[in-house]
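Discussion board: Methods & Data

I've been asked by a reviewer to show the raw model output for two of the constructs in my manuscript, not just the figures. I'm not sure how much to include, so I'm pasting the format here to get opinions. Each protein appears as its amino acid sequence followed by a line of discrete structure tokens. Is this the kind of thing reviewers expect to see in a supplement, or should I convert it first? Here is construct A:
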Amino acid sequence: MRTTKFVFHLGPARMGILDSVGGLAGSIIASIVMLVFAILSFFVTVFIVQVGAGLAGSPPSGDFVALSAAILAGAAISAGASPLSGLASDDGRGMR
């Protein structure tokens, strides 16, 4: 009589789960970093708008400074994340 042994190999399944968890953690960290950079760019834009209004000789109102900084920061962030930026990316082989 022949004896058959059943061997369960769970290595690739575990690695797939760990890769998924690692990818999820990387995405969460990347989104937090992007949020921090967006807030910092907003503060820098507020400073630039205030200085520019001061140089123009017009006393800036806080509402208009915040509005113009939000528009400028939002436009800069959306321009950096536009779908057209993917056209200029390198695929790793030196090809575009």
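Construct B, same format:
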Amino acid sequence: MRLENYCNTKNRRIMKKFVLMLMAALMLTSANAQELTKQQVKAVNKEVKKKLKDYKQRGYEIFGSSRTLETALTKHFTALEAKEGKIVEVTGFSQAKSRNLAATAAQNSAANRYATTCSQQIKGRVLADMANDVSNQEAEFDKFYAAFEGKVQQEIKGELRQSFAVAKQNADGTISVEAYYLVDDDAASRARINAFKNSQQESAIAQKYAQKLSDFVNERVVPAE
């Protein structure tokens, strides 16, 4: 082999080894960023064990995934722990005659649950901080809540990221699905803000009290389980 060819081959090997080492280092850094404390790992394992027992008792199995239910649950609760305060869990429930219909209905259910929570939260803030303004304009405020809720449902649907779902076959031939979604806080905030801006076009109240209502819209929303 000529010396020049030998040197080129050797350099390529060195470069390839360097690239592989760099990739490994980046993967390790990423993994460490998601690393949980012992206390968090314990909490995750506790939730996984609790959920596995619950689903088994109720006859539910993993739905729409090749993963085991335990693996899906571990990944889900690990994400919640690792990104606590930065993501929100939203659940959707459905019952339909086919798997596809049940899956779609579960997503719609999750979007509706999030939107309803948003409107209820804002209504509570309005009643607490703007009681005098509401007293003689209840009908107009109700129109705003309804418009805002509908817009949030439209906006948040595109931000729902399914983490996992479980399902069971019912005696009447229908399928019941429980789907769990994770929503990034920043994406959820954008969805609420866009919904508020769009609802302003349909609500005089939203225009009149834009600043105050906007402050409420910016507050974090966490749907109940």
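Answer (T.O., handling editor elsewhere):
This is acceptable in a supplement if you add a one-line summary per construct. For B, something like: Residues 3-33 form the longest helix (31 residues).
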